[in-house]
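Aim 2, interim progress: modelling of the MU-OXO-diiron-bound target.
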Amino acid sequence: MLSAKIQKALNEQINAELYSSYLYLAMAAYLHEANLPGFAHWMNIQAQEELFHAMKFYNYVVERGGRVELEAIAKPPVSWDGPLDVLLATQKHEAMVTARINDLMDLVIAEKDHASVSFLQWFVDEQVEEEDSVQTLVQRLKLIGSDGGALYLMDRDLATRVFTPPAQ
Ligand code: FEO
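Predicted structure of the complex, ligand included:
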């Protein structure tokens, strides 16, 4: 059984992952409007990954005999100041998610819930990848600066991203 404290924290994380998905969908819509379909596609896949994360927490709570309690999802912003601003906001958001996962890990260690420690380790590793992939895009976009041709090529590259459910 999950302790009440851990169950509450896991439910809050389901909400945080669903918000992440919502945020990235909002960013995808903005990027479509900005005529960057490849960036929009990349962000759309990011949104699908977040939904996968939310379901991973959801299924874990069910599996441990806990109660899933869904809360309202906050409204994300509707516009940003260009693709770099979107990616910097993504980077900031992912750093916040990493901090949340670390706090969760601290909690389950303190409560000696070894199954949850093992479960959360997947997310600790996943956050390293998530932060790295966004960092790579930020650096590339900074290099591009105001070169429209290079931005077009980057957009074309990002259009090729395929959603593959992250390894379990
Ligand atoms: Fe669910 Fe991007 O972390």
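The first helix runs from residue 4 to 33. The CA atoms of residues 72 and 122 lie 26 Å apart.
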